[in-house]
Specification:
The protein is of the alpha/beta class. It is built from eight helices and eight strands, in the order βαβαβαβαβαβαβαβα.
Length: 243
Amino acid sequence: MTPKLVLVAHGTRNPRGVEMIAALADAVSTRIGTTRVAFVDVLGPSPAEVLRDTPESAVVVPAFLASGYHVHTDVPREIADSAHASVAVTRALGPDPVLAEVMLDRLRDAGWRTGDSIVLAAAGSSDPRALAEHVRAAAMLADVARVPVRIGYVATAVPTVSEAVSALREEGHARIFVASYLLARGLFHNRLADAGADGVGEPLGVHPAIVDLVVARYFEGVRSLNSESFSTATEEWSPVRRR
C-alpha cells in the first residue's frame, strides 16, 4: 500500500492556525492522497495516536520552520510510543529556499520594494540548532531579496522584532518591512503589527510552493522507506525509522 502522510504541527488554540494546517493537509491530499494531521502540543490528536490508527507505512513530515526541541525530541518520542512498524521522518519544512521565495512574495504583497530593509521575524527557540537554522533562513531570504536581512524574534530569543526594526531605524534605513517566518496567523503574527515597521508580510500559509514542498518531503520519506538506510540533513539527529 502507498504510505500515508502524517503532517505534524505544533498545535495552537487559535482557530485560524488550526484551519491553516487543515487547509494545507487538504491541498496536499489532492496530490498524494489522504493526509493525516497530528499535533505535538496544545491539542490533539498526537502523532502517536494517528500512527496507531494508520495500518499502512507512514511518512511523518514535521511542519516546522526549524528543527528545535519538538523536531529533535517530541516527534521521535511520539513515533517510538506508537510502536508503528514502518515509519520514516523527513526533514522539517525549513529552512528551505522555497520558503524564502514565499516570504518575498508576501513582502511584495505588503508593499515591499527592491532595496527596502527586511527583518525576518521568527518565533524563536531555546535550541541553538534552531537558532542556527533561522540564520540560514535569513541568508536564503537575503539571497532572493538582494538586501541584508536582520533576524528578530517574537519570543524566547533576542533581539526582538521591535529591537531589530529600531536598530535599522537608528542606522538610517528609511523603509523597513517584516517578513513573517511563521506558518499561520495567530498570537505571534499579530504581535508583528506593533514592531514599528512600514509593513508586515503575511505568514507563509497555504501557498502553492508550500504545498509543493510538503509533497517533495513526502516523496523523500517514501524513498527512504524503500531504501536500506535513512538519515536527514539535520545535524546531530537521525529520525526514527522502523521497518
